[in-house]
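Technical note accompanying the year-one report. For the benefit of new consortium partners, we illustrate the data format agreed upon in the data management plan: each record pairs a sequence with a structure-token string. No post-processing was applied to the example shown here.
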Amino acid sequence: MGEQQPRVPLTRVAFDDEGTQAAWTATHRRIKHKLWLWSALFAAAVVVAIVIAPSDASVDFRGRARGDSSASGVIGGLAVLAYVFALYTCCGALSRLRKARSILEAYPWRSFPAVRKLSGTKEATGVPVQFRLSDDAAADAADENAYVDDDGSTWSQSMSARNPLRWNRWDESMERGAWYAGDVELGGVLALPGGSGLMTVQRRIQVRSMEQRSVRADHERILAAAPGRD
């Protein structure tokens, strides 16, 4: 027999679920720890560059020190580049996680029978995916935005799902069932049953480009479409 998956919590919004809060907090803590680690490594590299700088200095024919500091310069330059990249990565991850929380605080969890990764396609902002729609969801979906496979299963339009830290990470367990909070056509938050493995979901770049909409504009539309909001 297959392992029974957790049931969708009957909370008003997804973030009221304790498991979801724990998963979000753990991810947030992991990003913060990564940022602190990179900051410590950057500080250590700067100290090393300063310490070895005098030993890199040569002396000219008049006995005066001539700055060479090739090794310290290389170390300092690499440290700056690595730290800028780390800041960009961690700050981007924190931004995505904050957006995910705002959606989790506006939408309840819903269950999808499966979420599949699309093979043969690439997306710069994440993993291209489709949601398998239940009969009720399929009936509510617009005809032009739903896809019916040969076996009769109905799937949503393709979206882009992204792990806060690793843009191309995908857990194949979601192909056996997943939770989702948000709007199926605009975006939201995807997770494994139980609320772990949080991923932000947004429309693909091509779709937004045709409508000339930004990620921020789509995020505002998602929040505006939340249940109970005018």
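Partners are asked to follow this layout when depositing records. The CA atoms of residues 106 and 149 lie 32 Å apart.
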